[in-house]
Amino acid sequence: MTTQHYNPNGLSPAQLWCLATSAILTERNGGRHDTLHSNGNHEEEITSLQHVLERDWSISSKKDLLDTLQWLKTEGHNVGYMDLQHQLTTMSETAIGHYIHANRHNSKLHSSLILIKNYRRRLRKGGIRAWDDGRYISLCRWGATTGFISEDEAWSLMIPVGQQIQRSFKDWHNFGISYIAGRQYWQSQLSQEHAETQMEYFYTLFHEEYSPWRVTAWHTDLNQE
Amino acid sequence: MDCWKLLGLTPTVDKKLIKRAYAKNVKLCNPEDYPEEFQQLREAYEEALNAAKKINIGDTFQTPIDEKNADNTQNPATTDLPQPEYTATTPEALAEQFIAKISDLYTNINTRIQYELWKNLIENDIFWQPEVKQRVNTHLFHFVAHHPYLPASVWQLFDGFFLWSEQERELCKTFPEDMVDYVMGKLRVCRWMPEYNNISLTEETPPEVTIDEYLHRREALGRAIDNNDYSNAIPLLQLVDTYHIIDPVLHRLRSLIFLQQDEPTYAINELQQQAGLDPDSIDASLNIGDICWEQSKYAAAVRAYQHALAIDPESNLALRGLALCLLEQGNPLTAKDLLEQALEQCPFDIDVRVQLVRANQQLIDDTLPTLTDNSHDYPLRLLISRAYYDMGNFQRCSETLACVVDRALDSDGYHLLGQSHEKQQELDAALTAFNHALAFAQHEAKNGFDILLCLGKLHIDLKNYDLAVAYLTQALALSPDNADVLHHLAEAYRHKTDYRKSIELSTQAIAITPEHWIYYSSRGLAYFEQGTLESYAKAIEDFDIVLTHQYSLSGAWFDKAYCETRLKHHEDAIASLQKALDYGHDQADVYCRLIENHIGMKDFPLAHKALTALTAIDPDLVNIIYWKAELFRAQGNMAQASQLYQQGASTHSDYYLFHGAAYFLQQEGNLPGAEALLNALLTETPDNAWALLNSCWGFIQTKNWKQASERVEAYLALTPPEQVDPYAHLYQGRCFYYLEEFELAIPMLEQYIKTTRSPHGYSYLSLALFESGKHKAAAIAASTAYELDKNNLDFQQRLQGLTKQPGKKPSLKERLTTAGRLLDPASLPISAKRWPTTNTVEHHDTSLFPDIGCDI
Fold first, then answer.
1. Nearest beta carbon to residue A192 from set B194, B347, B354
2. Is B166 found in the same domain as B45?
3. Residue B171 reports pLDDT greater than 70
4. Helix pair angle (B332-345, B15-26), 10° resolution
């Protein structure tokens, strides 16, 4: 992307900032970071997005979409993650090791505990909130593309969540770690290969010249909307 | 000084071991306080890594020492404690005495935490008397239900001795259920509950406060913190503070509350006290390190993390923490090493990966100006190139090395260059570089392990499977337990179609690293390609594991569906195909399989629906004709099926249409027409077993024994013995017989009989034996044929002839009576079992839909 084509719709800094919170998923799907409709809004893209929403989120109506957004906002995967993390709060490292070992036959829980043991010091307060919030923003974008909600509705849903994200994390780095930890938690993915793939998105977002995480400053004023 | 000695190792090729030893030593040596020692250690580390490359097969390999386990093997119970004395004589009195001693141990917190005292008490021979043991069991269970604050080791000791966990139901007959539940709960969680070490009462402790009361409050406090319930936690803390009890766990709990209240300084103070009371615990050091790091107090953080590493040299949290501090202090090289080790402990840690990129960037920023000034500094150039490579900037890596290629590069340089080319998909350049690297490694007397692995992998990509096997086998000899080598070797063998070997190697890789889904994928594909019902079942198990890790892998769903189809698990197959479709697998392939499974379930409307969907994708797909015909055939409309096959075969040069058309022509008696199609099939695919056997049958019908024999011979040559159709032996036996090759006919017919016990087989065998002059054996075979089917007049006549005129040789014409020809089993049309239905021609289907390999 060049400067000439950047932000073709003239989105405000706050709007671009909100879109940037969904950057990992957008990057993964090969979409645009600087337009609301990340993969365009032609018939083919809309059909494809409708399929994805139905397949992965069971969303086939505006109500489904709003219910899911509400779930992400108030619960998401972070609630389960934080419950587990709290269970480990007072345990020593050795005790956590015993606890994990005792749960070795429950592979999902076992993976989650290993993951939390590793990340809990860095994600002590926010947990994997970024994973839920980032997906919230993606869903708003897709909801607008598929026509379940209008563009204005999408922005009005995204901006407050963006403000909340900005208060909860220190910078894009911290937000990104929380997001990817969330993906790893959700998929019970502790493999090197998966981490390497995630790292590619991360690396792109930190090093590409027009990456939203480079173009958009973390402390952008979001209250001007 | 010898690098191995400095690192505290004996020579090893295991880089992990070297890195671990380095990390262990780094913790003792602050670069700011001891710059020379730090440098010396670094040099020893690099020297050891280099030396590792030169250890060859046959050298003594060091078995990695598992320090944690080594520590565990030290038996703390070496002290001989005097056995407690028991004066009582009756079982009940003995049990009461025992409980009194238990109570004494429990009352004093210092004796309570000494496992050896409990062990000594309970392992007294006196308790092996059943009556005593039973009573003690009852008393002790009651005791612990009311005195539960025991170390985990003591709980486990009791459980091991009295087997409480296994007798929950029995215990409920003696004790209240809630009491049993409580004790079982304690047994379950004791290993991760806070410890009771180093607790002491002080002079200020109120006399009415007991240890158990304190521990009860402490437990409640811990629960409140775990539940994030600070409104309860704070009053509880205030209460236990009034007890004036010294306890490292209490300091830890206090530090958590201070952290929650954003009071890091107070938190550190508590943690320091915790560390003072419990110097072997890593927690306090890690927590201090983390807090200091957040406050940018790097020197203090370094000390804390070093202390943590002194307790556990493999702690990834301490390694990462120390690395981040060193990065801040401008030491990216050591930081990089530590981060790489942290990553070995936790390969999924994305934060460590990000920090590693940062370390590499810093390394480049620091050293690149030096390189510009001194371009002949090869080690520095290699260092920078490696940093570029690790950051994923492969082009810069190649460029940095390229300017000294043919001038200064050694095996390491060429190896890195090859890896860099490979990442850029410049496979030929990569191959050249790796070959150079291997040649240099030999010249430098290195074992070249990493290069052999790279060469093996690259040759798989280049489809040079024999070479891949050769290189990877050499690598495996150097590191027999390397799961990565095993996996790639398995892949090479899989491509060579040696599935048995491939499965064996993948299984070894899985045993070493069971969490790598790619190993299951590799093995699953090998099972899949083996193509037997048993192997399809095993493939499904492996694909299931793959899909738990990679749910959206459409290829795995499709392959799984294929196996399920072959096993006739049609419902499962349809569900898997739906997933494959959902996740973007080739739609035409999926619809073909859906039609097949719906046919398998005799659900013709849904099969039609899938056929319509297939047609919608591309109405000109040849597969559509095939599946339409199959659908007709499955519904019993043979005329329509035949017509479609004939039309299809006349307009499309398609393997399956030829198959179907040939079949129907044979069925309809048009043997020349069928033979033409079978010949066409065999021209295209000479190894087509079905066509060979059917063609043989056609020739037999026209009594063209020689050509029939040639076809069946070709069939037998290419078909694995366990998959040979028994009829093939019958056909060949019959051909040999008519060609008057009786000695050759006999073993073929014997083989047929062995598999089928068919009376026709015995009957034919009797003829061949008779012609060979083995009249007695011929009579026995004829008798067996008759015994197996007494209603068969021909068998009866043949037996009578043989027994009445054993020495007379009848003419061939006489021997083959009309009845004999009519009952010739080979004159029967080939049964439907060799019809190329989708259920029986697994391999054919594989070639029809070649995109069954997945994107794994």
1. B347
2. no
3. yes
4. 120
